[in-house]
Amino acid sequence: MSESSENFDAAAELAYLREVPAADLLANHFFVLAQWAAVHLAASPADLAGGQLVIDVMAAMLDAGDERLGPNAPLYRTALAEIQQVFVRATKAARETGAAATPPSGS
User: Fold this and answer.
1) Residue 4 lies in a domain
2) What domain count does the chain have?
């Protein structure tokens, strides 16, 4: 058993999840997804399929949550646009270098 699993308190985790507003928890997860997409796109070679999947999930969160995500929804849309631009640059770089990047799905 690892030290982190020994220190896990399921009751405390459930209490935390009950208390945190859904919009706040989703905001946190949204930015974790953005970081995860960036990791996929910064890999060498870039994992375009993985990055695209994460970006698509981010877009779905915004589409489904819309303004219910709170007053920071425009910030989330800006973050999505920025990671989409990173995806475009990674795709272009992979094509220019002929790198064996994982192609985006649907290609």
Assistant:
1) no
2) 1
